[in-house]
């Protein structure tokens, strides 16, 4: 009997070791929760050891750094240029290191988001109150157990929602209401519960209403007027349901249902002598995604995802009689991905991933050709890792088959894209790393660029990019409680066959592959944590970016060497937080240098630089197993008037008050 018991214990231990080995973060750099095994690695360690630039913000940092929404969080990361069209309802898109928003992929809980019409993901749709972490990786991810579509962008922004409770079977409820300037009201609710040790569910609901009628100053030569934004109301809601089923320690299933609805008015650009606007936009988005993660054997793991996405965009302009300017668009996506991870030993991992996607776009326009696209992506990745050295090599194969039901389809495209990244720890007893990486990638033309009437071209080639990076990361401790982390990266990027619109005649523009851009820059970040004692501490975080993104299309052109539109040479952020037993206080700021609103730098198209300062005050109370959080955000405390997109003024001084209750 003792021998049988011993054999049983050895068998259980062997299975647990297999689970731990197959999900070891030294190879995949992720946190994996299994039934009785939790393998994790700290955020700071992942940023430190990554072979490509990686920046992570976690949920507990949002409050400490005075972050109020996702766009605010992204402004705290180096290398990012955010386009913000003003106010709570303004479109917000992300560009990394001058590549443009179409080159930045966005992942939501591990599955890539898509936008086949314009190629730009509006990050304002996703609620920060439901986010567990935000990460940005520029180049290749050290986690090689990813879909091929994850590898198909110059940079990936990964949004991960909050984890469900795992230690008890009680229901957990989070309720929150946020009030703010200019008619801002936003209630939020999240319910989550484990029904057993195998099944859990969460439901999230959020509603945002805002008038957005904030004041601004309008200047026209010597004339200065005080105006208010008009036709700027936002009426938005989003709901989400997540289910997790873990039948045993080696298999897990996840299901997500998501719906977003935003019926808003569009104030448009600021115009002299008139502020009349009657534009409206109704955006809807629904998707369902299901994922499976499993350990097939001691050395083999499988991951598979499937998704259906539907989105509608309905534009109306009541200034035009007969609805001649109205337009509605509907897009659909079917997507599936399978990844196979093989780990022959503790130092080597191999991954093969294959993805299939189908996208189509219909509209209410009489010129609609009903385009569609089939895509097949495959990636093969090898990763070698020991205590001091990491090397990752990947080859991505991309196939795109384009066509249109009612017209000529864009040409098909295929390409092989290699990448390589390295990281080395210089000293065995010191956390000082050097890293270097190269990635070749491309993006296909969007449906607008290929098919839009009197604008698109079906003969376009994809934009091609090369990105080189070399950097240093350092983390050190001093004293009993304090530590500092520092990263600095230099990069050189090239874009060829850049898609630009040129006039075909007085009335027709068309897209052509004539653009070339070279980007040289530096990204730096630092985090300092200093504890006076157990109750008092200072947290300091800062980032800085230098970007020289130059037009290199034609040496004979007078615009050769000009900084590309909306890319500042200098940008940065900072926050300093004082944690104490009474009221936590944070002072924070973000800003950029001057930019231009177009690539030609015409007179009067320059956009002034700015520095936006804010203050956050917060206090949390615990009553038994319940908690109450009070928070006050004072934004733009210097009442600076500035623009991120030309002729779209941002709000001046404003406030938000948040009350959150959890049990």
Question: How would you summarize this macromolecular structure in one to three sentences?
Answer:
It is built from six helices and 37 strands.
Protein architecture, described:
The structure is a single chain. It is globular, with a radius of gyration of 25 Å. It starts with a helix and ends with a strand. The chain has a 22-stranded antiparallel barrel. It has a 5-stranded mixed sheet with strand order 3-8-9-6-7. It is mainly beta and 663 residues long. Residues 1-26 and 30-40 have low confidence and may be disordered. The protein is 7% helix and 57% strand. The longest helix is centred in the N-terminal third of the chain and has 21 residues, at 2-22.
What class, by secondary structure content?
mainly beta
- Residue fraction in strands: over 45%
Number of strands: 37
Q: DSSP helix count?
A: 6
Distance between the termini: 47 Å
Helix content: under 10%
* Integer-rounded radius of gyration: 25 Å
Biggest sheet architecture: 22 strands, antiparallel, barrel
**Shape descriptor:** globular
**Mean of all residue-level pLDDT scores:** 87
Q: Which ranges are low-confidence, i.e. pLDDT below 50, for 5 or more consecutive residues?
A: 1-26, 30-40
Which descriptors would you attach to this protein?
663 residues, mainly beta, 37 strands, globular, 22-stranded antiparallel β-barrel, 5-stranded mixed sheet, 6 helices, single chain
